[in-house]
Amino acid sequence: MAKHTVGCVPYLNARPLARLFANTGEVEVIYDVPSKLPKLLDGGVAQAVLASAFDALKTPGRTYAAGVSIASNTAVESVRLFSKVPFGQINRLALDASSLTSNALARALLAENFAISPQCDAALPDLGAMLQSHDAAILIGDKGMAAAGEGLNVMDLGLAWTELTGLPFVWAIWIGDENLSPELVTLLNQAARWGEGQTEMLAAEAHAETGLPYEACAHYLRNVMDYRLTERHLLGLKTYRDLLIKHALLSEELFPTPVPMSTDAAFAP
User: Where in the chain is the domain with CATH 3.40.190.10?
Assistant: First the structure.
């Protein structure tokens, strides 16, 4: 029986962070969309969840595992805003109901770059259905990467963020509370470092399970995703928080507390 339980998003970008646990049995992984993962933590089901950075910034008492994130340094390719009209003319925006961080980022970017605050409605991630009643829509994850967007104005939110700030964007971190232990943080770092070296295997598995082209999956894992969490990444996360506060999308200046790796644990993926 696994000693730890974590919650993880079921997307390609998270495979390098959780796939090792299928081999070792040390950690049980429960998969769900990012907007639902915090409930696993708050209900005591999981000791950590690979959840929205937005949740960590709006919920008092959160901790996070040092050293690991899902981040990007330029275009992220899987988190995009699709619009039937020029971005500055968006009046109604369909939010991806499975997302927290991306929805808040899109609203902040529209406010900062175009001085607009559209009416927002949560919707299931179906681009055609979303655009039937809205000017624009946000898609994340594998659906965000697969959507073609022909004839639409498309904003890559990762690229838009980096162009605005020059900083990485942290999409998700391993979030916990007082029960997140250095032992589990060590295991999460071991899994991440192992996963970073398994691009070909993980891309092949993703291709078989999702139908996304193998080369697209391999490119995404190798060249787009960044699984570190350095001081520069944390500066990006704090800058995101400050932008949300500026545009009244957050009300408090919160930041989660880091939990380091165990000092006596052998680091050997």
Answer: 4-73+168-259, 80-165
